[in-house]
Structure formats: structure tokens, C-alpha cells
Amino acid sequence: MYELKTLLPQFDITVPKCMYEMKNLNTAIVGDKTNPKKVTEVSCDDAQTVVKRQEKVMLQLEELKKQLAGIRSTLGLCQKGSQATSYISSNNGGLREEPLHDVVINGHPNFIPYALLAMKNAWKDLFTIDVKTFTHSTMSDIGKEAKAFEEALKRVKVDPSKPKVNVTLIWKNCEHTEMISSPTMYVPIYGEVNIIRYLGRVGPAEYRYEDSPLCNEIDAVLDICYQLLRCNTPKARANIIRILNIRLQKQQYFGGDKMSIADIGVHSSLRRMPAIADKDLTPALLEWRKRAAKFTLI
User: Fold this and answer.
1) CB contact at 8 A, 24 and 30
2) What predicted TM-score, i.e. pTM, was given to this entire model?
3) Which residues contact 296 (CB under 8 A, 6 or more apart)?
4) 209-297 CATH fold
């Protein structure tokens, strides 16, 4: 056969001596490196040592598991980890609806999501939003207003007989209010208005608006809320207030003759805008605000 020439020079490879050399535990005899024909017996003590180490590691893992369970108990979390809340709906023939995964909301104390409190109050006889709050290490102090918000959330009782969704609100130094609804994928939903849309679709049937003839109108009002929260000048805020007044017209609520998710969005947005006083609202909006406050209590 044709013999190929060596393209690379021969190098002597020196194996580092700092590496740990594993002993052969699978057989009772091994060959001697210096004399392959010579065999030596391996003591079973090495195998016993590995077994003891494994047992020690298992005990340490069990102790760690107990410590984590204690931490979860201290924080008031479920001992079974992340759960999905499911319930049987009477609107679809008694079929079990798709389970609702617990959601996490990251929010800055300067941008308090009052919509959570508004929905929790408005839905207390229909649906439960169980909100638990925590403070991230990036926040040294959340401020008086956020603490008052937490106390208001605690005052709303949780009815275990009602269908519910568990919400974990984390005060964090973040730019946008964001919600993570998937336990396996980090797919955030940005903005309080979009969080309202999501919860409105999984909340009580009385507030779901996909099949409503006013679906487009409700979405348009929520879009206006998004713009309102980003107004930086009095002129821009006055323009949005004028648009809301036109949308309301002579209706009792933005969703017609009954409270809707659009009213919760507008009411919570106005609550987040201290620069907008009663004198800036039209008489129709002032009357609407009083009616909506009976439901949202904010």
C-alpha cells in the first residue's frame, strides 16, 4: 500500500501529574503498567469508600430538602411547588376548563399596578385573585404608597370556594411592569394594560369580552389607557381625557350599561396619575368615576 508521509512532527505528550487517577473498581484484578503480565488485586475498600460518600451526599440532599421546605413554609408558599389552578365552569356544560398557572408580576413601587386591587375588589363575589407580595433585593425601600397598597390587598378576603388564580407580585427595580404566565418559559407580558387583558380573559365569565359586540370598543379604551400612562405633558393628558369623555358619551360605563374590564383599566390608570385631579375631568367622567369606585374601591 502507498505510505503517506507524516505531515505533522511527532510530539511527546506529557500527561499532567496533577490529575486525579481513578482506580478500577469494576474488577478485582488489574494489570501492572510496568509489567502487563503481572496482575495485582484491588482492595474492596475503595468501593466501600465510594458507597459511603454516596450515602453521605444523599443525607446532605435530604437535609437541604428539609431546609428548602422550611423556607417555603416561612414565606407562606405551597409545599408542592408551582401549582396550576383549575375549576369547573357552568357555562360550558360543566366541563373542566384549562388549568390556570400561577403568575408572577414584576413591578416598580413607583408604578403600582392598582388594577390588581381593582379587579380583586370588583370580582370578590365571582372570582379570587390571591396576591402575595415580596420585595426583590434591588429595592431597599418600597415606600409608603406601595406598603399601603399591600395592606389594601390583604384586607380583601380570599374565598376558597371561588375559582382563583394565584399572583405573586415582586417589587423590583425594573423599567416596565411585566407578568410571567408560563412556568416553563420566560415569556413576559409587558404593561399593566396587557396584564388587565390577560386576567380579563381568564377571570369570571361576566368580565370576558371576546364574544361581546363591544369587544373592539373595550380594546380601544384599553389602548387609550396605555397612552394615558405615558403622557408627560398636561396638554397630552387633557387630550386623552377628552378622548375618554367622547368614548363614554352618555353610557353608564365604558362597556355599556354594566361594569367591564375597560372601566377597571381606566379607573386604575387614573389612580396612577396623581397629576390628574377632579377638576381636570368632565362632569360625565366624574359621575362615572363615582360609580366605578363602588366596584374597585380604589
Assistant:
1) yes
2) 0.67
3) 117, 118, 121, 122, 264, 267, 268
4) Glutathione S-transferase Yfyf (Class Pi); Chain A, domain 2 (1.20.1050)
